[in-house]
Design goal:
Belongs to the fibulin family. The chain is mainly beta and 399 residues long. The chain folds into 4 domains: 111 residues, no CATH class; 38 residues, Laminin; 42 residues, Laminin; 125 residues, Cadherins (Immunoglobulin-like). Helices cover 13% and strands 35% of the residues. Helix 2 packs antiparallel against helix 3. Bound molecules: calcium ion (CA) (2 copies).
C-alpha cells in the first residue's frame, strides 16, 4: 500500500504542481487503491490529455483488451506496463470511457523509491505451487520438468509424457515423470527408452533346451535334430520318432523295423541251412548228422535286440541266458564267440544254470554291435548248444 507515505499524491489540488507526466503510472495505483473518483478523474485527465498512450482503455465495461500493456506501455518505462491480465473487468470512470484496473504492485515506478516488490520472497511458498520467479513489476510461476502450469497460473499438474510415445515399447506415466519398460523377452537399454532383445540362449548356459537353443526376437525357441526327433509338448526336449510305428521307415517287406533313439534299423533274420524258422526271431536245427555235430552246432538260434545309450554306466548287465526249465545237475558254459573282437562285452556265470552278459567298456559314440552269445548246457552226460544273436545298439542319449 505504498501510496500512503506519499501524501502529496493524494490531495487532488496539489496534483497540477507536483505531478509531472512521468509519474502517471503511480496514479493508476492510486486509482486502484482508493477507488476515489477524484483520483480517477485525475488519472483520466492526466492520461487522456497528457499521455493518452498510457491509458488502458476498454471498449465496454466488462472486458479489457488483453494486449493493452504492450500497446500502451511507454517505451522509456517498460517496467511500468499497466497489465490488465488478472482483473478482467473494467471500472467505469467517465462514461463512456472505461479504465482497466491496475494492480498497484505491478506498476510502481522505481524512481519514486517504490522499488519492484519481489513477491516470491515476500510470500514464500504461497504464490506458486512449485517455482516462483520474480519479474519487473510482477512474478511468474513455473513448474519443474514433468509438470505444466495449470490455467490458474499457480499450480502445477503432472504431464502425461506417455501420450507422446517416448518409449520403445511400454510407457508408464508417473507423477512428475514417466518410466519406460519392456515386454517379456526384452531388457531396457541404459538410455532408459530402448528395448533390446534378450539372448536367452547365451545367458542360460544351455539349460533351456535339451538339444539346441535358437534365439529369436523377444523370445527363444528350442530345436531338435533335423531327423529322428520331434519336439516334445514342453517345447524343450526332443522325443524320438518311432519310425516303425509311424510308418516312416524304409525297411523292405522281408526286414523287421527296430526303433532306436533318434533313428531306426531294418533287420533281416535269416536261418542257416539245415535250420527252419519257427518264429520271427528263432531258428531251430532241423537235424544233425552225428554225435559231435549234434553237440557242437546250436540246437536253437534266437535273435534279440537291445538298445543302450552312450552314457550307460558300465559295467552293465545287459542280458541273461539259461535253460528253461533248469534241472538239478545242469551246468552251463557261456562265451561270446563272435562280435566281441574289441572287448566291449564280457560274460559271467552267475550260477550253474545262469549266465550273464555285460557291457563293460564305455562306448563313447553311437554304434551297432551284433554279438553271438553261446551257451553250452551240460545235462545228463551230453552238451547242447544254444546261440543268442544279440543286436546291441548304442545310441545317443535322450534329448
Ligand atoms: Ca530373445
Ligand atoms: Ca527312432
Amino acid at each position: 500500500m505504498r501510496p500512503l507515505w506519499f501524501p502529496h499524491y493524494i490531495p487532488p489540488l496539489w496534483f497540477p504542481h507536483y505531478i509531472p507526466p512521468l509519474w502517471l503510472p503511480h496514479y493508476m495505483c492510486l486509482l486502484w487503491l482508493s477507488q476515489c473518483m477524484h483520483s480517477l478523474w485525475v488519472s483520466i485527465y492526466m492520461r487522456v490529455l497528457w499521455f493518452p498512450h498510457y491509458m488502458p482503455l476498454c471498449g465496454s465495461p466488462t472486458t479489457c483488451p488483453s494486449v493493452v500493456p504492450p500497446l500502451h506501455a511507454p517505451l522509456w518505462f517498460p517496467h511500468y506496463m499497466p497489465l490488465c491480465g488478472s482483473p478482467t473487468t473494467c471500472i467505469p470512470v467517465v462514461p463512456p470511457v472505461h479504465a482497466c484496473p491496475v494492480v498497484p504492485s505491478l506498476h510502481a515506478p522505481l524512481w519514486l523509491s517504490v522499488a519492484d516488490v519481489n513477491e516470491c520472497w515476500r510470500y514464500p511458498g504461497r504464490l506458486c505451487a512449485q517455482t516462483c520467479e520474480n519479474t519487473p513489476g510482477s512474478y511468474q510461476c513455473s513448474c519443474t520438468t514433468g509438470f505444466r502450469l495449470t490455467s490458474d497460473g499457480k499450480n502445477c499438474e503432472d504431464v502425461n509424457e506417455c501420450l507422446n510415445n517416448p518409449c520403445g515399447q511400454e510407457c508408464a506415466n508417473i507423477y512428475g515423470s514417466y518410466q519406460c519398460y519392456c515386454r517379456e523377452g526384452y531388457h531396457l537399454r541404459e538410455d532408459g527408452h530402448t528395448c533390446d532383445d534378450i539372448d536367452e540362449c547365451s545367458q542360460s548356459m544351455g539349460h533351456l533346451c535339451a538339444f539346441k537353443c535358437v534365439n529369436v526376437e523377444g523370445s527363444y525357441q528350442c530345436a531338435c535334430p533335423e531327423y529322428g526327433y520331434t519336439m516334445s509338448p514342453n517345447g524343450r526336449s526332443c522325443l524320438d520318432i518311432d519310425e516303425c510305428t509311424t510308418g516312416t521307415h524304409n525297411c523292405s517287406l522281408t526286414e523287421t523295423c527296430y526303433n532306436i533313439q533318434g533313428d531306426h534299423r531294418c533287420l533281416s533274420f535269416s536261418c542257416p541251412d539245415n535250420y527252419r524258422r519257427v518264429s520271427d526271431m528263432r531258428c531251430e536245427r532241423a537235424s544233425c548228422g552225428n554225435f559231435m555235430e549234434c553237440q557242437n552246432s546250436p540246437l536253437r538260434i534266437t535273435y534279440y535286440q537291445l538298445s543302450f545309450q552312450t552314457n550307460t554306466v558300465v559295467p552293465a548287465q545287459i542280458f541273461r541266458i539259461g535253460p528253461s526249465p533248469a534241472y538239478a545237475g545242469d551246468n552251463i558254459i557261456i562265451s561270446i564267440p563272435r562280435g566281441n573282437e574289441e572287448g566291449y562285452f564280457s560274460t559271467r556265470k552267475l550260477n550253474s544254470y545262469t549266465g550273464a552278459v555285460y557291457l563293460h567298456r564305455q562306448v563313447h559314440h553311437p554304434r551297432d554291435f551284433l554279438i553271438d552269445v553261446e551257451m553250452r548246457l551240460w545235462r545228463q552226460g551230453t552238451f547242447t548248444t544254444f546261440v543268442a544273436k544279440i543286436y546291441v545298439f548304442i545310441t545317443a542319449p535322450a534329448l
